[in-house]
Amino acid sequence: MAPSIPAAALAPLFLLRVISPSIVFLTTLSFLFARPAAPSVQSPSPITPVVVATRTHRRAVIYAFLSIAGLSYLLDGLTFVFWAVFRKEWPAFTGLEVNAVVGLAAFAGLAALGAWKEVQGVDVWSMKRHKVAIFATLVLDIAQVVLLALAITRPLSTVFLLHLAFPSFRVLLLVPLLFVLLFPRVAYVPVEASVEEASTDTTLLLPAQDAAAPSSGLSPLSAELSKYGTFRSGRSIGQNSIATTRTATPAPSTVRVPPPKAQEAKEDIALDPSWREIFDRIKHITPYLWPSKSFPLQFLAFLCLLIMIAGRVVNLFVPLVFAQLVRVFEEGSKESPWPYLGAYVALRFLQATGGLPALRDTLWIPVMQYSDREMSQLSFDHLLQLSFAFHARRKTGEVLRILDRGAAINHTFETLVFNVLPTFADIAIALVFFIIYFEWTLALVIFFVMAAYVAASVILTRYRTKLRRQMNDRDVLIRGIHTDCLLNYETVKYFNGEQHEGERYREAIREYQNYEYKVMVSLNLLNLVQNFIITLGLLVGAMLVAIRVVRGESQPHQFVFFITYLAQLYGPLNMLGYLYRTINQSLVDTERLLKLLSEPKDINDKPNAPDLIVRNGELEFDNVSFSYDGRTTALDGVSFKVPKGSSVALVGESGAGKSTILRLLYRFYDLKEGEGRILIDGQDIRDVTQASLRKAIGVVPQDPVLFNASIGYNIGYGKFGASQDEIVAAAKAAQIHDRILSFPDGYDTRVGERGIRLSGGEKQRVAIARTLLKDPPILLLDEATSALDTSTEKDIQKALQNLVQGRSSLSIAHRLSVSVTPIRSPCKLC
To answer: Are residues 538 and 492 in the same domain?
Structure first.
């Protein structure tokens, strides 16, 4: 290399190689102190513009050119290192080593730091300083190429040609880069579009706090409590009310819902818990993730741990054996290479995905299935145990999406044990061997490189977590729109709402993809920063080992060992960054599941609560008052008694509180102290178990909801394990048997979602049959015959009269003529 350049050209060439990248490097450092510019205030113009010129930089092209320029410095430096190792000569005063390290740090750092400053709202690429710096570097690189071309002597070496090719390539690269920076893209757009585009562009990756709530008008999971059966309040809903999923007056073609208030945004977006809070939440569900009660599964987990340790040993010996194989060929000794080659192939097989990792994953499957099964069962059971108040305000689609995303926590423990811990173990082992094989200086450099890598990954991932959380919230709300429209399909058709719902969905998708774009761009930024740190560490480490080889302190095969082991180590290190992102993303995805699992169970049995014992079936409401939200009154001092075998009809207008009485009797809500008592045979229903209470009560609701299963299954739901004869008998009593037999599949006919394939009267008769099959001592009838025709109503009235004989019953009706004939006078609530 050196002999090909005249001595007179060495000094100026050294200066050109050092100064050229240093200019860009200093400019890159100056960006650390760049701050967003204050918005300029322009005096109003008497002319109102229709269109304005917008200038946008081609960011993708700029980042690509800067990255490629940094890559050229890396390849130039590696060429120098490999030449020095195999020639065992380190030429002095070439400036190549400084040129490579500083150039890589300058251009790759400029790309990474520029992207980060853009995240902070700094218009980096409009500044003049980096344009001047790149122009100066271009001029100096041209001078370097000209000087090398004039200094060519015969014979030409391949290495010399490479050192000429790389700066020549950079000259060809910097020219279009400078052109792109000097001449941004100009477009003329309408004034309204330019304002919206500017707003979007300036907040490219900014996770604005007040902009967290979706502008599609979608409601959060914690919506306002529904107030069923309450008195009408004269107060109107003010600004503090929660946004609903609908616009106030849907337009026929354009739906533009204003964003919610900042207070609503705070309720919509999940709180940002600390790591300690998250792991405290996870600690409560650890028994469901770890098979603490299963010794066979714990033994399998222990075997997997041993395989993981064996994998660390294999990772160490792979580069060691390969280095010994290179040593045999390097020295030309008579030592046979076949043992080393065979050992290397065997170790590579164990290290590959189909080796030890495959065996470990196979043994881990039962443990993984345990955690999946237990967590799914925990979530499902918890949802069923939550109070009616929760289910009255929740959105089905959003809850389902939360459960889907929350499944990610099942694999968090597996990721920590089999990926994160082995990665740190590999790094620690590598640092020890670098000290033994080389010197502490090299281990210190690699340690700082890895520390910088982990720190950068943590910092940027924490930032990305905010974006990811906001994207997930939009995804949950989109799922809510799906379910909302499917459940209300008929309503959409009744009012020609297809275009309105399509626009609403399109707006929600647009908002989701806006955050999705930010998440993906921030991921590319993270990858760029990580790659920059790794390549810089590789170049500096290779130079340090190359110097040792030139000095005779190390051998070329040890250089091979370093490069091989470092490349192998960067695999887990890259994985560590990925794993941190994955775990963080999993925790974000599970935040709402953890929040759902922490949702309080409002209705709980008292400790050692006895079962309800029904002897006479006497019901009594004793001065009962109740409010759903603490602001409006649903019941106020209601008292009445249903003696044994009596039927009481509650007659009143809608909203008078009749349905509230049934819900309180069924313990969908509990009365607070001082709000009265509800007694069955003298037993306060708050003091008995919910299971025994609900077993003693049969309900026929006004709007029966059926499972998407067969008619026989829906009737048999009243008595689990009922025989077919019992189901048929209940259907006959409910006057639905003949109608069922008219269906092609009879009792196997599927009723559709929520029973949509049946008419209103058919659904109500199925509900009556279900209650008849249950045969409870107490009956609650909520407009039980409201959906029946006159002829069928008479038959059902007779069946109900036979059913209520000897039982206490409470029925609800808007007018007395459609209620069960009362034995006692109707109870007026209003």
So the answer is: yes
CB atoms within 10 A of CB 279: 12
Mean pLDDT of 618-635: 84
Q: What is the DSSP string of 510-562?
A: HHHHHHHHHHHHHHHHHHHHHHHHHHHHHHHHHHHHHHHHHHTSS-HHHHHHH
Nearest alpha carbon to residue 308 among 356, 248, 343, 344? 356
What is the b/e burial string over 769-795, where b = at least 16 CB atoms within 10 angstroms of the residue's CB? Answer: bbbbbbebbbbbbbbbbbbbeeebbee
Question: How far, rounded to the nearest angstrom, does the alpha carbon of residue 684 sit from its chain's CA centroid?
Answer: 45
- State the number of CA atoms in the 13 A half-sphere of 176 facing the CB: 13
Tell me if the bond preceding 155 is cis, omega within 30° of 0.
Answer: yes
Count of beta carbons in the 10 Å neighbourhood of residue 571: 12
Is 234 a member of any domain? no
Question: Are the C-beta atoms of residues 373 and 287 closer than 8 Å to each other?
Answer: no
pLDDT band at 40 (very low <50, low <70, confident <90, very high): low
CB 647 within 8 A of CB 827: no
Highest mean pLDDT range out of 172-181, 392-401, 524-533?
Answer: 172-181
Most confident of 72-81, 166-175, 656-665: 166-175
**SS3 of 656, please?**
coil
Beta bridge partners of 597: none
Give the pLDDT score at 306.
92
Smallest CA-to-CA distance from 504 within 235, 214, 128, 735 is with: 214
Chain-wide mean pLDDT for the chain? 75
Same structural domain, 790 and 756: yes
The structure tokens 């041993």 sit at: 306
CATH number at residue 716: 3.40.50.300
Q: What angle do CA 219, 486, 492 make, to 5 degrees?
A: 85
If asked whether residues 580 and 625 sit together in one domain, one would say: no
Angle at 400 between CA 481 and CA 521, to 5 degrees: 70
- Residues 627, 564 within the same domain: no
Q: Is 39 left (phi over 0), alpha (psi -120 to 50) or beta?
A: beta
Do residues 717 and 707 make contact, with C-beta atoms less than 8 angstroms apart?
yes
For the chain, the 3-state helix, strand and coil shares in percent, each to the nearest 5, are 65, 5, 30
288 within domain boundaries: yes
CA atoms of 537 and 450, how far apart (whole Å): 8
Q: Reading across the β-sheet that carries 677-680, which strands appear in turn?
A: 635-642, 619-626, 677-680, 683-684
The mean per-residue pLDDT over the stretch 24-38 comes to 79
Classify each residue of 640-659 as buried b or exposed e, where b means 16 or more C-beta atoms within 10 Å of its C-beta. Answer: bebeeebbbbbbbeebbbbb
Q: Which of 381, 372, 382 is nearest to 406 (CA)?
A: 372
Q: How many domains does the chain have?
A: 3
In terms of domains, do 545 and 421 share one? Answer: yes
Residue 697's DSSP bridge partners are 778
CA distance 583 to 605: 37
| Lateral strand order in the sheet of 808-813 | 647-651, 808-813, 778-782, 697-700
At 219, list the tokens.
């409601």
β-pair partners for 650: 812, 827
Distance CA 638, CA 635 (A): 6
- Residue 336 neighbours by CB distance under 10 Å: 9
Q: Which two tokens stand for residue 255?
A: 């739906």
Name the helix (H) or strand (E) containing 620: strand 619-626
Q: What is the pTM of this model?
A: 0.59
Cβ contacts of 565 within 8 Å, gap of 6 or more: 319, 430, 433
With respect to residue 55, please indicate whether it lies within any of the assigned structural domains.
yes
Reported as type and span, the H/E element at residue 239 is: none
DSSP 710: B
Per the structure, the complete domain to which residue 759 belongs is given by 619-818
Which residues, including other chains, have CB under 8 Å from residue 732's CB and lie 6 or more apart?
none
Alpha-carbon span 334 to 360, nearest angstrom: 40
